[in-house]
Amino acid sequence: MTHDDAVLEPELAIIGAGPAGLTAGVFAVDKGIDTVILEGGRAGGQLATLYPHKPVYNYPGNSGIPAGSLAKRMVRQAVESGVAPSEECEVSGLRIVENGISVETDRARYLVSAVILACGMGLVLPRRLEVDGEREVEGKKLFYVIDDPDGWNETKVVVVGGGDGAADNALLLARHAAEVTIIHRREALRAQERTVEALRSAGVRMLLGWDVGHIVDSTDGISLHVKRADGGEERRIDCLRVLVNIGVRANTDFLRTLPLERVKARVAVDTEMRTSADGVFACGDLVAYPGKSRLIVTAVGEAATAVNSVERYLRKRRH
Ligand SMILES: Cc1cc2nc3c(=O)[nH]c(=O)nc-3n(C[C@H](O)[C@H](O)[C@H](O)COP(=O)(O)OP(=O)(O)OC[C@H]3O[C@@H](n4cnc5c(N)ncnc54)[C@H](O)[C@@H]3O)c2cc1C
User: Fold this and answer.
1) pLDDT one-digit tens code per residue, 12-61
2) Residues 293 and 254 in one domain
3) Which residue's CA lies nearest to atom 52 of ligand 1?
4) Which of 194, 296, 298 has most ligand 1 atoms within 8 Å of CB, for mutation?
5) Domain endpoint, select from 194, 217, 247
6) Is any ligand 1 atom within 6 A of the Cβ of residue 255?
7) What pLDDT shows up at residue 7?
8) Which of 18, 41, 25 is nearest to 105 (CA)?
9) Which stretches within the chain are classed as H helix?
10) Within this chain, do residues 108 and 132 fall inside the same structural domain, yes or no?
11) Domain end residue (candidates: 189, 222, 247)
């Protein structure tokens, strides 16, 4: 469509329907602010897309809930509050214009008075190993997300990665697979000590200080050719399935048209979640301030603060 076709004019556009955006939506409609939530993928954020089966232990009132279920509850609450997120509606550009902020998507253009950026690190994609043979087995024997843990039952599995995500997933797979090995390029996992202990107790094998060199597909499974990170010894590890959890590729390029103060890839905010651009507020994983921690609880708390600030901003604008 051309952008002249439709211009929608809610007061507030929230970009992203993860924990931050969904919470902001609930608070905004509660305050009577005419709001849209624009979500480039599926609602639920990282919980739904990156770790749906991982239990979340640190969200109040929901100890051990699988992240995907927590995300569904948040989406349901937003829908029931009257602010159903528009899914598959990627925001491609934002511009400050004379009478507000122009928000561009491939479906429509919105002219709004205020924006809350709640887009995490953008439409993230899992980071690939970028080694020979990887693309040929992607989605067949090599995965970046566990869609269905039962699909891993009784298999011999390798998990590549050493952070919390990889460790949590290895622990989950240890309950399903016949054998789990973690391969990590550093000499120690970066995951929480409690998780590392649990991995040891569950009998997960650890190959630390090893890099994946290339991957070979075969009728029996898949072979990972690994070498010592210092370039010495080489080995072949045979398995049936591989899970790669080495982080995500961020994409926040669509924010470049706004005059935002950045802290590396993040957006600087003050204690009221105001950015350096007039009418633009931000919350959740996207933001940076001293002491920021990237958690669901902080994202939802910042969302409430951002909406309070939007309310004050709109009140001033109206008078
Ligand atoms: C493996 C893993 C395990 C974790 N475990 C925990 C845990 O146990 N407890 C905990 O508290 N935290 C955990 N976290 C961190 C937690 O998930 C994040 O802090 C939280 O998701 C941040 O929420 P958010 O709403 O800011 O961002 P996100 O969850 O990233 O949501 C942002 C949303 O914005 C959308 N979006 C991005 N760009 C655009 C665009 N251009 N247009 C429209 N929409 C867009 C995205 O599709 C996404 O849905 C974990 C993270 C990972 C990766």
Assistant:
1) 999 999 999 999 999 999 999 999 999 999 999 999 998 898 889 899 99
2) yes
3) 165
4) 296
5) 247
6) no
7) 85
8) 41
9) 19-30, 45-49, 67-81, 134-137, 164-174, 193-201, 296-318
10) no
11) 247
- Same domain? 28 vs 72: yes
CA distance linking residue 184 with residue 163, whole number of Å? 9
**Residue 293 to residue 158: CA distance in whole angstroms:** 30
- What pLDDT is attached to residue 3? 47
161 lines ligand 1 (CB under 6 A): no
Task: Kindly list the strands in the beta sheet with 221-228, ordered across the sheet, starting from the edge strand earlier in the chain.
Answer: 210-218, 221-228, 234-239
Ligand 1 and 39: CB distance under 6 A = yes
Residues 288 and 238 grouped into a single domain: no
Question: pTM value?
Answer: 0.88
Q: Does residue 1 lie in a domain region?
A: no
With a 6 Å cutoff on the Cβ, whether 20 touches ligand 1 is: yes
Minimum-distance ligand 1 atom for the alpha carbon of 165:
1
Reading phi first (left if > 0) and then psi (alpha if -120 to 50, else beta), residue 80 is in: alpha
Does 18 sit in the ligand 1 pocket, CB within 6 Å? Answer: yes
Quote the tokens at residue 142: 């090599």
pLDDT tens-digit series, residues 196-234 = 999 999 999 999 999 999 999 999 899 999 999 887 899
